[in-house]
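Q: What changes when heme C is included in the input?
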Amino acid sequence: MKLALISAIVAAGVLSVGVARANPELSKSAGCVKCHEIDKKKKGPAFQESAKKYKANPDAEGAMFKSIMDPKGDHPEMKATPDEVKAVLKWVKTL
Ligand code: HEC
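A: The predicted holo structure follows.
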């Protein structure tokens, strides 16, 4: 029983590392890189700029999400699902 619990914890750790690694890749498959680069302005601001802008915000991810998903905002429409956008933003705020 104890062993099963430990394996479950280890498995969860491995899984979360997998997700964290997937985030930069997701910015490609989700189409963000068409308009964004990490350290240079393209059509949209550099991801590092956005990370800086929202650094002081304890909910940086949520605030960025709201900003770019707001239908009345300036962000162009995206093909990515909300879950994909969130996963990418989780990575962006660490840049
Ligand atoms: C068709 C081009 C385009 C695509 C695709 C795109 N963006 Fe953007 N993005 C922009 C532009 C233009 C802006 C500047 C306007 C704005 O801030 O809303 C921007 C701004 C942003 C900002 C800054 C928002 C703020 O409040 O400062 C973030 C964060 C962002 N995009 C994330 C993403 C993510 C994540 C994806 C992929 C899921 C993505 N973008 C896909 C063009 C794009």
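Observations recorded in class: The radius of gyration is 16 Å.
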